[in-house]
Amino acid sequence: MSEHAVDLDFRLDDRVALVTGGASGIGAAIGEALAAKGARIAVADLAEGSEFPCNVGDPDSVSRTVGAVVEAHGRIDILVNSAGIVRLGAAEELSVSDWEATIAVNLTGTFLMCQAVGAHMLAAGRGVIINMASQAGTVALDAHVAYCASKFGVVGVSKVLAAEWAGRGVRVNSISPTVVLTELGHQAWDGPKGDALKKLIPTGRFAYPDEIAAAAVYLASDAAGMVNGADLIIDGGYTIK
Question: Whole-structure pTM over 0.85, yes or no?
Answer without folding.
Answer: yes
